[in-house]
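Quick one - inputs below.
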Amino acid sequence: MLAVDSRADRRYVITLSCPDTTGIVARISTFLAEAGGWIVEAGYHSDPDTNWFFTRQVVRADSLSFDADELRARFAAVAAELGAEASWTVTDTGRPKRAVLLVSKEPHCLHDLLGRVSAGELPVRLDAVIGNHDGLADIVRAHGVAFHHLPFPEPGSGREAKGAAFAQLGELVGAREPDAIVLARFMQILPPNLCRAWAGRALNIHHSFLPSFVGARPYHQAYARGVKLIGATCHYVTENLDAGPIIEQDVIRVDHGDTVADMVRRGRDIERLVLSRGLRWHVEDRVLVHGNKTVVFR
Amino acid sequence: MLAVDSRADRRYVITLSCPDTTGIVARISTFLAEAGGWIVEAGYHSDPDTNWFFTRQVVRADSLSFDADELRARFAAVAAELGAEASWTVTDTGRPKRAVLLVSKEPHCLHDLLGRVSAGELPVRLDAVIGNHDGLADIVRAHGVAFHHLPFPEPGSGREAKGAAFAQLGELVGAREPDAIVLARFMQILPPNLCRAWAGRALNIHHSFLPSFVGARPYHQAYARGVKLIGATCHYVTENLDAGPIIEQDVIRVDHGDTVADMVRRGRDIERLVLSRGLRWHVEDRVLVHGNKTVVFR
Amino acid sequence: MLAVDSRADRRYVITLSCPDTTGIVARISTFLAEAGGWIVEAGYHSDPDTNWFFTRQVVRADSLSFDADELRARFAAVAAELGAEASWTVTDTGRPKRAVLLVSKEPHCLHDLLGRVSAGELPVRLDAVIGNHDGLADIVRAHGVAFHHLPFPEPGSGREAKGAAFAQLGELVGAREPDAIVLARFMQILPPNLCRAWAGRALNIHHSFLPSFVGARPYHQAYARGVKLIGATCHYVTENLDAGPIIEQDVIRVDHGDTVADMVRRGRDIERLVLSRGLRWHVEDRVLVHGNKTVVFR
Amino acid sequence: MLAVDSRADRRYVITLSCPDTTGIVARISTFLAEAGGWIVEAGYHSDPDTNWFFTRQVVRADSLSFDADELRARFAAVAAELGAEASWTVTDTGRPKRAVLLVSKEPHCLHDLLGRVSAGELPVRLDAVIGNHDGLADIVRAHGVAFHHLPFPEPGSGREAKGAAFAQLGELVGAREPDAIVLARFMQILPPNLCRAWAGRALNIHHSFLPSFVGARPYHQAYARGVKLIGATCHYVTENLDAGPIIEQDVIRVDHGDTVADMVRRGRDIERLVLSRGLRWHVEDRVLVHGNKTVVFR
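Output:
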């Protein structure tokens, strides 16, 4: 895998999904070859079940004689030949992706993402952190990132108060038009309208190996069942709780000596890793959603 | 962990579980010290939730001046002091554990266990393999192990025919009084009476990371959900399908390129490992069941 | 990854490596598209250090109107355009790959490979097993595979006796022209002439995570150093001991409680997995060697 | 494993290593039982090679009628009976362990440790961070931790200048008497006198799976060798470079697509995890050093 972010060189990243047929690769690669495009990374996948084709291509910007807008215009013509169902993107690594983080009290994922961005490990700019508590404001600001305190009503405060908070959240996020909205242990269930508005851009980290232990207190559920591994899942948020397309998962071994508190602590290591990987792949345009599943070109 | 099987030396293995209180370790270790017992391995666990205590001790047989029966008699007196709920075992590695394997058509777990036993990796003697198909008979017999073909009626043949087959199975197994009954991809759901008769001795390998994907065709379920890891679970059989105490679990990474057939093939690597670990720990008396969970002294 | 072996469908597998330049993908994919070729799997890699290009393409045989020989002839013309240094293969999954296994006394890798081939997990035909001891002959023959006992002289018997044994080994293997020669814990260091004759076809399993613990008794070396993980390495055999191109590696956790005997036993699980993966990738033409490194299209 | 830090309850942690003999467990557990000590966690290990015994016991402070000093005095008498070579500690979780971090320019381990301490995940107080560059000063201070900028002379500035810097480092650290001195990618080789002064307290993170790739630029070495996994090692610092007792190691999979820059980035995930685990175990008195190896009671 190419570390797009670790190179001075600018890249254009093309993704495409469309019904599968003979000749797609030839069509795209001939188009790029004729333009002089130097492909530095290429992934292909044919799904035999749905008969769908997926690709991701990374091209050196300096190998083309035109810019990203022109590439988009020309590629649109290629994609059009591949049918009305073809879905595609062309992005430019010269324009950094931007993310907004939503947090609550749990700090570990936030600390991890701030550290990674600050160390130049994640090719993303943090536009804002929005928290329903303000305990993490200082450290966010020390990293030079804006923090917005948006208190949420207590459980049981009525639908209206909560609706108002979500409306404000929708405006705060919407004004920034971020490429990624990261629920970094946000602990609030998004209303359907935000799920729809943020479709394909909102990433959640759930602290279990889904589909096991959906919903609240998954470590307690895992402890009660006596599983020997605990996990975490990064997935796109949809209207169905913890049921969106899975981007990444991982697990860690536990044993009979681990209390729920131990699982909570140890699970954080997996939550951090899984969320940061999922976010990286998302902003590097490595994740293509198809139905309720993902193709991840790592 | 001590490879009990890889030593000429004979060991006595003591396990105990009882309500927790101060002084249990002192009581047991003083008893052993006074008898001259050389402890080569010792595991302890206190469960804060249920306030229960668990231990497993391995003693060099040649360090005691008496035999396993006498150790049992003397340890019974110690255990009696620890309350009526105390549950304990004393086993002698000089008397090999014996197992019966139940198989169907899927050969991979059987091949693996035959190979391990033949290579001296697993401290267990295979008394018999019982299969509801006879395709694996030859290779079992080539390993010098008895094979019994016990055909099961086709699905839909009526409860009676199935009941007769299970009755015969119960007799075949019961006559051997095995320490372990291993469902090595047996693909039949045991009736309640066998679950009870074999309680704590029947190990199943389920081809998913439980509690995800209970029941039939777990790899198909995993494929449909788009998980990024698939797993296997070794558990004691109880009357609740795939819900018994978990002994061991593990997972392997899959991606969008893996078809169901790929998952089936790749999952076998995990099934083999998880079942052989679970069986090893069971016959080495490393697994103590408490409620629906296990303490595994690895 | 596509399980080529788990499908009735016949495939042609094309591999190519050559100096990198713009347009290679276009050239190959256009060639295939014009022939009606249905690509079911495609991998590409550009190595920025050596400026070399690698690809592996899997085409449905029934999508072409000609056979493998004709494909070879036509592809040769394409490859010729890519320069004199281009190296390529076209294989046909309708003609099963054949392997010869070399063994000594250690049975675990042999048992594992026999079980996998017998279960249809590995797309390879075992032509023969050659052992310098005969203890494993019976189980090999029970699997319907020829076993040749080729005793090797005792250490210290002089160069000549050993040379004669290796000459005989070379003849036995050479007569079969196998696609893979698997040193399944063979425990003999091949002479340079066999290393050269079998270049790119001889796979060894070394029981350490190379480059740590080259040579004899790697588990003893690992124990002495106090490492917390032990591993195994599958690599192509070259004249430099344990230094050939690495195909696959994996590790397993150990701790202070593991004796050397425990490491030997537990390491076998990793040796089995790593060797069987390496062999699978080799016979599926997934491994392209470049210098002393490999590109593995999994 | 019990999360000592996640409980309000105070614990006394006893560690002991001594020549092995019958009756040690009985002696210690009887001593504790007679004092009313409630053991919440106990680990034992007998090393058959060196015939040495190791234990770690965790006792509820409120179960004893005396304090840590008195426990130390009484335990000293018990340990004295176990021979002159017995080595032991008694620590009190009510007195937090203190650490000093040494850093250079690489920020990822520092960010990770700051985040963990700030989130209450690591039972340690950070007394100071000492850096030979000042780029990380602001974020350290934002976490409320003192930062000392101690510039080191350029390579080639002569032995004297470097000696002066190390002398100052020795004074800065020595004045704090920390329980742990953490070289969080410090990138300087400690002089022998500091290695000796900090023996058993200085933890280094090396960015390879030792003993592979000792010394400079281990990711470059790993890339050149074509390994399929890269790793990191946390070890105690000794006078022999990268050769001290190993506390923890872990690895992550790489493939032919990973450049050195990718390995550097991806390896950070393992460095963070391995260092934070090693530090946790060290400050929880889980690590007992014996010769050049460790016993880790996890």
